[in-house]
Specification:
The protein has about 140 residues and is an alpha+beta fold. It contains 3 helices and 7 strands.
């Protein structure tokens, strides 16, 4: 499985990102647009329900992911990356900022916070974001 990474541009916290995605989902189907279809899009999309995710970079850290549902067409000849409205917090991992999106191999992807017994998934996103900034999670 293959994933994508993208900087959460203009986002100030994990909570802000969650609010932005929730607002987009409430307005209809949630998707991002990009100029070009990723060459490895079939590896990213995978079979229905088994595809990759878009990992969000905030303050030079991978902090959360949104499952990718599919790729489609958008206005102006652009490509739509359709996302599941769920925001899954992950174990923070350093990642340099970049423009656009980049590939992330499954072996290099951070684990979901909900999958361990540390209780971090039950914490408010803002607190998890602050702990990640301090490199404590």
């Amino acid at each position: 499985m293959l994933h994508l990474t993208k900087v959460a541009f203009g986002v100030t916290s994990v909570e802000h990102l969650a609010e932005r995605l929730a607002a987009r989902a409430a307005a209809g189907e949630m998707f991002l647009t990009t100029r070009f279809l990723p060459k490895r899009h079939e590896e990213v999309a995978g079979p229905v329900g088994e595809g990759g995710s878009l990992y969000w970079i905030l303050k030079h850290q991978l902090i959360a992911r949104s499952p990718i549902l599919r790729f489609g067409e958008a206005e102006g000849g652009r490509v739509a990356i359709h996302l599941h409205p769920e925001l899954v917090l992950v174990e923070a991992r350093p990642k340099r900022a970049h423009q656009g999106w980049r590939y992330l191999e499954a072996a290099d992807a951070p684990a979901d916070l909900g999958g361990n017994a540390s209780g971090l998934a039950a914490m408010p996103p803002a607190l998890v974001g602050k702990l990640a900034e301090l490199c404590l999670v």
